[in-house]
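Hi R.,

As promised on Friday, here is the backbone we talked about, encoded as structure tokens. Could you run it through your design pipeline when you get a chance and send me back a sequence?
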């Protein structure tokens, strides 16, 4: 199994504690963006936005990010068709993170797939007894 498959589909925990260090050293200043389904209230994903991404999101009313891995504007759904319609943007108290409230327009928000369809959100596994267990990303914990 490739490292990407292990990370996205495996049951072993391999958390990337270096991600924020790499983001902080990138060429573009960004802030974190939590993305929440306006109807279910589920958190779908975490991304990053720079000024260009924020302006695009506000103008076009679609979730837009700055891809820290590709170093380019990432308009969610531009290639997959799984758009996230932007309903509102909230700013936290210290003005150093955003919350995009969105409505899904397509199969789901995650780039990973299950049965040929995009997963609803990126938080589809839970740590249980030191292993990852697949869960319904819309369901609340038991």
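Update: got your reply. Pasting your designed sequence below so it's all in one thread:
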């Amino acid at each position: 199994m490739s490292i990407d498959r292990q990370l996205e589909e495996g049951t072993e925990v391999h958390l990337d504690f270096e991600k924020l260090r790499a983001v902080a050293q990138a060429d573009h200043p960004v802030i974190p963006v939590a993305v929440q389904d306006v109807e279910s209230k589920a958190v779908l994903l975490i991304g990053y936005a720079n000024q260009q991404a924020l302006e695009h999101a506000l103008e076009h009313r679609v979730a837009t990010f700055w891809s820290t891995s590709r170093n380019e504007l990432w308009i969610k759904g531009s290639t997959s068709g799984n758009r996230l319609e932007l309903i509102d943007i909230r700013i936290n108290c210290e003005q150093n993170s955003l919350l995009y409230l969105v409505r899904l327009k397509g199969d789901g928000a995650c780039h990973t797939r299950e049965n040929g369809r995009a997963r609803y959100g990126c938080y589809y596994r839970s740590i249980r007894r030191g292993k990852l267990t697949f869960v319904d990303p819309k369901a609340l914990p038991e």
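One thing I noticed while checking it: The CA atoms of residues 16 and 113 lie 21 Å apart.

Thanks again,
M.
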